[in-house]
Amino acid sequence: MKLAIILLVLSVLSQEAYSQNFERMRENMVRQQIQNRGIDHQATLRAMRNVERHLFVPRAQQRRAYDDGPQPIGYGQTISQPYIVAYMTQLVNPGPGHKVLEIGAGSGYQAAVLAEIVEKVYTIEIIPELGNQAKILLENLEYDNVEVIIGDGYFGHESEAPYDAIVVTAAAEYIPPPLVAQLKDGGKMIIPVGSPFLVQTLMLVEKQGDRITTKNLMPVRFVPFTRKE
User: For strand 183-193 and strand 71-74, is the pairing parallel, antiparallel, or unpaired?
Assistant: First the structure.
């Protein structure tokens, strides 16, 4: 009996140390990779501190989850570099009461970051296995304001449009017109545009009435924007 109690206590202490280690890694990520590179949107910084990034990668990758780079999540997909997630989030300027559409749910990490800030997130994933995994994880983490949709993100999610912001996490060869149409007046979309196998350009799209403006931001590398055949 005493041995069993000792083993239980050691297990609890080990789990606490494991959790605290990830918390330190997450804080270092925010300070060194994100704040030091100019991200100052307070809601974004809070979200990056709150979301446990290591839970959104395969278990074998968890020790590297807070590294300064993308990580594989299976099915030829990746979870984006922490800085890029924060940068894209800051640029669409999410806030309380906002409704956001994400294209490319992946493991659900970007959706979780957005869900920490806005009222509702709709996220679309074309790979059913990934989408279902993301849905289960987000539900287990009690992100009740995220809806995961399995489908072709090119067409967006018209039934809930318009959106305050749209975040696209896969490289498209051009900006999909249905997504522009689903932006709210005054809304913003962030999207990587270019060849899926070369360096792309991260672009900011803004809608003011009938006027659409685009701005080239930086070179990036994203996985391809997958379409249904």
Answer: unpaired
Domain positions in the chain: 2-220
Residues classed as catalytic:
80
Q: What is the pTM of this model?
A: 0.89
CATH for 2-220 is: 3.40.50.150
- Give ∠ CA 49-53-58 in degrees, rounded to 5: 170
Separation CA 123–CA 51 (nearest Å): 17
| SS3 (DSSP) at 58 | coil
Q: What are the pLDDT digits (tens) for 128-179?
A: 999 999 999 999 999 999 999 999 999 999 999 999 999 999 999 999 999 9
81 secondary structure, DSSP code:
P
Identify whether 162 is preceded by a cis peptide bond (ω within 30 of 0): yes
Cβ–Cβ under 8 Å, residues 156 and 131: no
Closest listed residue to residue 150, CA positions, set 81, 211, 104: 104
Residue matched to tokens 């489908």: 151
